[in-house]
Design a protein that fits this description.
Cellulose binding domain-containing protein; Immunoglobulin-like; eight-stranded mixed sheet; mainly beta; 3 helices; Beta-glucanase-like; Jelly Rolls; 446 residues; CBM3_sf; CBM3; cellulose binding; nine-stranded antiparallel sheet
């Protein structure tokens, strides 16, 4: 071997070595991060993927978590939704957005000291239509149910690769979000990323957690903020009863301002048929609706647009029924209702995208993109309304023991003055989430 040829080989070897080293050099000499992964949904096909992560700081300097991005690589073209089920650092500080290539997880606050780790980040994502999907071909997926170092998920600190091996041969794209909401459109969007019913941001963002007594529901029941929680960014209403009025707890979240009238209302709501605990059988009502206060009996300016699901029937119905009801007015005593309704007698347990369009004298109700009801005429709302979610009991069945029913809400969306098609609502919500928007309210007060 000639000396010159040996030099060439040595140069090539050094180049290869330096290139390999460059792939694993952390963002700075003082920052050395390491990621561990496991899954609690190891099946090749699943209803939701559940990557659980722990991020370690093996370096010598503290890392601000808002400088960290974690990328979990995907295949396919499905539309997914992200949720944080539980995190030691708090789900309210954890964000997730999708590009065509990966889920990017970030943090809004916090820091990671040398020698420490974040503890569990129990994350999950699922298809927007809640259908099962294959995760076995996702680059970052692994079936292991115990934690271990995992370099198929990357970590970036201040935009520089600090851990892992990205998929693909070229540079990774920078996520870009193309707004789908027309400029100037007044919108309310809330992803429900709150720590609990006492989170001060609820009031700051125009929400009221009900604690005042009164109807609807069982006379003497309590409306309790303690029944409202936000696990994994899901508004969760837990209502319970032991068969007595004193032992009955109902739940309600409402906008504080009555500023919603014509436009499009949307929410992704999970109805349930069976209680989370205790025996079944109560006449419970699970809802998404808008409403105007009744100033006096048969007030002509009253308005109410309802989605109401009765998993065990009630009001003379023996079993599951979903109502959409549009109200002109009513009188409480003696009871007189001026309304129109459409109903389907079937189980609606599970997640559903609910949309109400209010425009041109008509109210169109959609369930999962399907036109469910078309109302109008005298039932068209005349005045601005509140947006509400509540879960309450029509009457009591004298249960033995306490039974608790659960309703959940993934998001709420309103667009002022627009009839937005259900598919467009979904794309707009996906766009807002991809931009990292947890809350937006540009709807003016009346």
């Amino acid at each position: 071997m000639s000396r010159n040829f040996g030099k060439v080989l040595l140069a090539l070897a050094l180049t290869a070595l330096l290139t390999a080293v460059a792939l694993v050099v952390p963002a700075s000499a003082g920052q050395a991060v390491r990621l561990q992964y496991r899954t609690s949904a190891p099946g090749a096909t699943t209803a939701q993927a559940e990557p659980w992560l722990r991020l370690f700081n093996d370096g010598t300097t503290t890392i601000p978590l808002n400088q960290v991005k974690i990328r979990y690589y995907l295949t396919g073209t499905e539309t997914y939704r992200f949720a944080c089920s539980w995190a030691v650092v708090g789900c309210s500080t954890v964000t997730g957005q999708f590009t065509g290539q990966y889920l990017e997880v970030g943090f809004t606050s916090g820091s990671l000291a040398p020698g420490q780790n974040t503890g569990d980040l129990q994350l999950r994502f699922y298809r927007a239509d809640w259908q099962t999907f294959s995760q076995s071909d996702d680059y970052s997926y692994g079936p292991q149910t115990g934690y271990g170092d995992w370099d198929k998920i990357t970590v970036y600190v201040n935009g520089a690769l600090a851990w892992g091996k990205p998929t693909g041969n070229g540079p990774e794209p920078t996520p870009t979000v193309t707004p789908t909401v027309p400029p100037g459109t007044a919108v309310l969007f809330d992803d429900f990323t709150y720590s609990g019913s006492s989170d001060p941001r609820l009031a700051q963002r125009g929400w009221t957690v009900r604690s005042a007594s009164g109807g609807p529901g069982v006379p003497g029941a309590t409306w309790s903020p303690s029944g409202i929680t936000f696990p994994g960014g899901l508004l969760t209403l837990d209502s319970s009863t032991n068969g007595t009025a004193a032992g009955t707890v109902q739940t309600e979240l409402s906008t504080t301002s009555r500023k919603f009238h014509e436009g499009t209302y949307a929410a992704r709501v999970r109805f349930t048929d069976a209680p989370t605990s205790g025996p079944d059988g109560e006449h419970v009502v699970q809802t998404f609706f808008t409403i105007t206060p009744l100033r006096y009996n048969l007030d002509p300016d009253y308005g109410e647009l309802d989605f109401e699901y009765l998993p065990n029937g009630g009001w003379g119905e023996p079993a599951n029924i979903l109502y959409s009801t549009s109200w002109e007015t009513y009188q409480a005593d003696p009871w007189q209702a001026v309304n129109t309704h459409t109903e389907e007698r079937a189980s609606f347990a599970g997640w559903h995208d609910l949309v109400i369009q209010v425009a041109g004298g008509r109210m169109k109700y959609y369930v999962d993109g399907r036109l469910f009801a078309d109302h109008g005429d005298i039932y068209y709302p005349e005045t601005p309304m509140w947006i509400m979610f509540n879960q309450w009991f029509i009457d009591l069945q004298a249960a033995t023991g306490t039974r608790t029913y659960r309703q959940q809400v993934d998001y709420v969306y309103y667009s002022k003055g627009e009839s937005v098609p259900p598919a467009t609502v979904l794309s707009r919500v996906a766009s807002l989430r991809a931009a990292g928007t947890a809350f937006q309210d540009t709807v003016p007060n009346p």
